[in-house]
Design brief:
Layout: H1 2-19, H2 26-43, H3 46-53, E1 60-65, E2 67-68, H4 79-83, H5 89-101, H6 103-106, E3 113-114, E4 120-121, E5 124-129, H7 135-146, E6 152-158, E7 162-163, E8 169-177, E9 183-193, E10 196-207
Parallel strand pairs: 1-5, 1-6
Antiparallel strand pairs: 2-3, 4-5, 6-8, 7-8, 8-9, 9-10
Length: 208
Amino acid sequence: MKIKQLNIILLLLTISIFSCTNYENEKYTLNENEAIIDIIPDLIDLNNMISINNYKSDSLNLYLNSTLNNENIAFTEQFDSFLDKFENDSLKEMFNREKTNFKAFTKKSIKPRNLDIKIKYSNLNVIIIPSYENSRNIIQTYNEKAEIDKNIFGSLDMSRIIFDKNYEIGYLSYGFYCGEGCFWSSNIQIKKINGKWKISETYSGGIA
């Protein structure tokens, strides 16, 4: 009984932390921009992909959707139907936690916004492209540009980030397309560790 009561208290605390946030203020946007810059190399597994594919160029190009789009959050519409399929209590608990953490997306509390930053790494150029209706058009843009751009690395579609009140934990979804038969997407948790944002937990997602 005590464990059940503790879980309820933790759930209520999580809801209260994320329910009173102003997602549009300057402080929130600055923290979101900082996190995006930190985590992009991890989202696309940059160093490992360069090693596996033997990329020689020091000017690889990543195409990034200019809109942080919340419409394509992995599996959020099927949270309840997925829960019914889990017989393992620990999996149900994990999925319930994911559902709670991503509630701002499913409740549409946090609105999409356009990126207004420049992003560049020593071994990757990030080219922000105009917003499209969905990630399929990002993939189409990738395929069209790949015909003429031999340095193309892939295309990335990201959601907004839901932060805790101290900007130490965040939740988001993303999809990365790196060519035919090369795609992955996930709902993830990120944490700020030693001043840098890192992926700390992976939830629902898919890979091809």
